[in-house]
Amino acid sequence: MSAIASAPGVASSPRVLRTIADIRRAVAAARRAGRRVGFVPTMGALHEGHLSLMRRARAGCGFVVASIFVNPSQFNDAADLEQYPRDEARDVTLAGSVGVDVVFAPSAREMYPPGFATFVTVTGISEPWEGAHRGPVHFRGVATVVAKLFNIVAPDVAYFGQKDAQQALVVRRMVRDLDLPVEIEVCPTIREADGLAMSSRNVRLGPEDRARALALKSGLDAAADAIGRGERSPAAVARVASDAMRARGVEPEYVAVVDAETLSAPAVLRGETLIAVAAPVGPVRLIDNILLQVPA
Ligand code: AMP
Question: Which one of 9, 91, 207, 213 is most buried, by most CB atoms within 10 A?
Answer without folding.
Answer: 213
